[in-house]
Design brief:
The protein is of the alpha/beta class. About 35% of the residues lie in helices and about 15% in strands. Helix 7 links the parallel strand 9 and strand 10. The longest helix is centred in the N-terminal third of the chain and has 15 residues. The chain is globular and about 65 Å long.
Length: about 350
Amino acid sequence: MTRAAVLLSYRLGDTDGVSVETDKWERALHTLGFTTRRVAGELTGDTRSDDVVLPWLASGSSDRPAPSELATALAGVDLVLVENLCSLPLNPDAARTAASVLTALPDLRVVFHHHDLPWQRPQYASIADLPPPRPHSLHVTINDRSRHELADRGFIAHTIRNVFDVDAPPGDREATRARLGFGHHDVVVLQPTRAIPRKNVGAGIDFAAALGRHVPGRRVRYWLTGPPEDGYGPELDRLLAHASVPVTVGRATEAADAYAAADIVVFPSSWEGFGNPVVESVIARRPIAVASYPVLDELVELGLDLYSVDAPGAVASYLAAPDPASFDANLAVVRRHFSAADLPVRLEAAFAAVGWSRS
């Protein structure tokens, strides 16, 4: 029997972490026999005939919520996958309205997929009614830290970390570098993030500059893929104007092309729910220099060996003498813990843990 699922969020179809992981979960749900459709405040990229856009759900919307619209969009489904909408209150009215509508549908199976939680961001720390205490729901976190924090607040949750196509083909290095004007001998330092405060663009630029001092005779270039958001444009303009290394801002055609075109990945974030570039760089066989954001400890404990943004000299040593064995060891860790091929089994196990059967 075919079952229907709705993917519900502020925004879907973009390159942000929530959208990317929702796509992976959607593929896993298809493997488990679900049909799926999307309901969101914003939908970007390729649209589908059954997409439902409710603009008041968008993170930046000030439109009045319309509970009946959401209830209609959820009619006839067996499962709702709530992607961060009731986790991080980017639009508190939308989050609370969604929670109310879902609570009023007690027979509906609901998965709250928590990428972030209110108390993990200072501006939302005072919000105490999200996530909602909806009975008979499944709560899934992307790290153990969040699972433990939910437990302290009376929620039983399951950790399912973000997953990846471990055998993804490499991107097109030469064509991407040529399109962006990178020279053959340039050292390209890629920061594959949006430009918002916690992504710490200034530290990424500083790392590229420091690396340049360790590789005399080679030009080091800093490449930021994402645009500014959350009012960060003026600060980004200031940082780029004062950068001591050449800077490129813009996306590659595909994420794989960006990693292929890079020589080093830098990820100086101060906070991440997971940090997809850490694993993506391993799959692309690119060294990554990271800042010590809290959840990174969990990835390191699983066995990943990473460079630090505070040690550009170690990265320069890698450039002088690359070590393929280190990539092989990291990739083995990724294959063991983060393979997308294992996601359907992990999802079904989480469903079983709360008594949900295939029927």
